[in-house]
Amino acid sequence: xxxxxxxxxxxxxxxxxxxxxxxxxxxxxxxxxxxxxxxxxxxxxxxxxxxxxxxxxxxxxxxxxxxxxxxxxxxxxxxxxxxxxxxxxxxxxxxxxxxxxxxxxxxxxxxxxxxxxxxxxxxxxxxxxxxxxxxxxxxxxxxxxxxxxxxxxxxxxxxxxxxxxxxxxxxxxxxxxxx
Length: 179
Prior knowledge:
The protein is mainly alpha-helical. The chain has one domain. The protein has 6 helices and no strands. The termini are far apart. The model is unreliable at 127-132 (pLDDT under 50). This is Transmembrane protein 220. Keywords: Membrane, Transmembrane, Transmembrane helix. The chain crosses the membrane at residues 12-32, 38-56, 68-89, 139-160. It holds the Pfam family TMEM220. It comes from Plakobranchus ocellatus.
């Protein structure tokens, strides 16, 4: 891989990780009013810190400590994600709610999905691991777009909740506590 492409790829990933750092930090902030804040603030703080370090010093992503923290986060959140899938199914079955974001368990499942996706893609996104040159360019192009979408779409849905009168029409905004 040429030096120019490598530098461009590094800059793209720094930007993506910075967007995720903002998302995870805001998610941590929003959860400070939850009854189970002691669970969700650390769940969002760890990826926020990993993203900030990856955006400020990208070479740290190759370090053993960064990989260990990201792997622990990935597998821990994956286990909790499986539990939340069951919880969402039970709420759906008992209450017949069709929009999963209308209740707490659905929003928690969405957050865990984003964390698990971010962690898995971040851990497997080093383009040096790919031996096929044609797949290198597609990975460099595709993964940042997927990652950016994962960070920006929830931020857009949150912002809808703060538009007067419009926020009242969305079910995911009804149970949000004021920040």
